[in-house]
Automatic annotation (TrEMBL):
PANTHER family named in the record: IG(IMMUNOGLOBULIN) AND LRR(LEUCINE RICH REPEAT) DOMAINS (PTHR24366), LEUCINE RICH REPEAT CONTAINING 53 (PTHR24366:SF96)
Organism, scientific name: Petrolisthes manimaculis
Protein name: Oplophorus-luciferin 2-monooxygenase non-catalytic subunit
Pfam family, one: LRR_8
Residues annotated as signal peptide: 1-22
InterPro entries in the record: Leu-rich_rpt (IPR001611), Leu-rich_rpt_typical-subtyp (IPR003591), LRR_dom_sf (IPR032675)
Database matches in SMART domains: LRR_TYP
The keyword Translocase appears for this protein: no
UniProt keyword annotations, A-Z: Leucine-rich repeat, Repeat, Signal
Length: 351
């Protein structure tokens, strides 16, 4: 009887030990799943997610104030190098201040929607040498320390579309490749606006209340390939307005009020040119013939929805089927007839 009791106690002890071991292993596994993220309770309501390569993403969309955001990043954070910070549709934060993000560094910062109005100097200071992508869109942002951009040595992409920014911001960056400022009240671009952005590949200024382009605005940018100026109120392009040096490029001038394009206004274009939805009465030979007469480097022209007169001024295009092939859509004359369907013989008496 005594021997049986001993066996029972030994069995119970073994079960207890195994249970404790299992619980310990379970806790250890849980901790490994959370690492390298901080303790969940310490950073709430922010949420940290571990990526497959053990990078960390921080989502702080649910914070209720800038003070709470600062409290999160003043918590004990064992590993400060984050892949990204995301704040979406947050109506509580109106200002981001220096120190709100502590010493954390980020490669990507995305703030979309919400009531953000101001970003103070040095807010992203800890990310001077890590930040590659900065997006602040669809907010009430009216002030940002653009003079600080030069300090972000790895910055490649800036998307500040659809905010309350007025005027073209003064900035310099040796690394920036893509700058999107559409749907802001930019109003104009000075001759020096892009001078200090030598690595720029794409510029987005669509629906930015721009009414004119000065000669030389886009000159001297050896890597520039893509220009978005659609949905503005530009009425004419002077000689030297757009000059590119790349062998493949896109220029969007559609949905403006363009009535006149001077000879030499479009230089170095070798890709697609969009001039649809304007007020052009002609596709002037002096403007477009040099661009469709470049062999393999000729442009593809999109020119629908312009009130083209289709007199002798368009003969150069119609009588040469090689040139017609560069029309990518179906522009029509003011009477509705498609340019591609015009009989070349009607232009025999043109000078």
């Amino acid at each position: 009887m005594e021997q049986q009791r001993i066996v029972t106690w030994v069995a119970m002890l073994c079960c207890c030990c195994l249970g404790t071991l299992a619980t310990t292993e379970k806790r250890t596994e849980q901790q490994l799943r959370e690492l390298p993220c901080p303790n969940v309770a310490d950073i709430a309501p922010c949420v940290c997610t571990v990526l497959p390569d053990y990078g960390m993403e921080m989502d702080c969309s649910s914070v209720t104030s800038s003070n709470e955001l600062a409290l999160v990043f003043s918590a004990e954070i064992p590993f400060l190098d984050f892949e990204s910070l995301t704040i979406l549709n947050n109506e509580a934060i109106t200002s981001l201040r220096a120190g709100d993000l502590g010493d954390a560094t980020f490669r990507i910062i995305t703030i979309m929607g919400g009531s953000l109005e101001t970003v103070v100097m040095n807010t992203f200071m800890s990310s001077y040498h890590t930040l590659t992508d900065l997006t602040i869109t669809g907010t009430k942002l009216s002030f940002f320390p653009f003079g600080e951009i030069e300090s972000f040595t790895q910055l490649r992409y800036m998307n500040f579309e659809n905010n309350d920014i007025t005027g073209f911001p003064t900035m310099a960056s040796a690394s920036l490749r893509e700058l999107l400022l559409g749907f802001n009240s930019i109003g104009g671009i000075s001759l020096t606006s892009l001078t200090n952005l030598p690595s720029l590949v794409a510029i987005g200024l669509h629906s930015a209340e721009i009414s004119q382009i000065l000669p030389g605005t886009f000159s001297g940018l050896p890597m520039l390939q893509e220009i978005h100026l659609e949905m503005n109120s530009i009425t004419q392009l002077p000689a030297g307005a757009i000059e590119l040096q790349t062998l493949s490029n896109l220029v969007h001038l559609n949905a403006n009020l363009l009535e006149y394009i001077a000879e030499g206004a479009l230089i170095g274009l070798h890709g697609e040119v969009f001039v649809q939805n304007n007020q052009l009465h002609e596709l002037a030979e002096g403007v477009f013939k040099p661009l469709v007469d470049q062999g393999d480097n000729s442009i593809s022209l999109h020119a629908e929805y312009n009130p083209l007169a289709c007199g002798c001024e368009i003969a150069w295009l119609v009588v040469n089927s090689q040139y017609l092939r560069h029309l990518m859509d179906d522009p029509t004359c003011s009477d509705g007839e498609e340019v591609k369907n015009l009989d070349p013989s009607i232009f025999n008496f043109c000078p």
